[in-house]
Description:
This protein is α+β, with helices and mostly antiparallel strands. It has six helices and five strands, in the order ααααββαββαβ.
Amino acid sequence: MLSLTSFITGLALLSCAIFCHAQGTDVISKKTTSMLCSLLNSQDPAKFSQNHNVKLTDGAVKVIIMVDAKLLPKDFESKYDLREFRIRKNTASAYIKLDSLRKICEEPGVIFVRSPIKLRALSK
């Protein structure tokens, strides 16, 4: 019976930890996916990106940024040193340095940042 109680207690603590992480108190965890959040918090982003199939090029990662275009500053692209920046309606795509990714999440006009979806061909 003691082991069942320990298991239930451990499960409850784990559930609380997952819930707290999902709720997140910082803006990064609220505006990015867990993968990008983990990449930003990694001690070795290059190694993390290799292990998790995230393409990191010259310290920059490709992202899709959901935005409220009316709230974006006019210098948005240059302010965050966005490469290959494209915006259409409320969706932007760009390569962004990890330091800038942290800062861009604080922009009121940025709603959410995620990695692009990678499509794969169906095998016959």
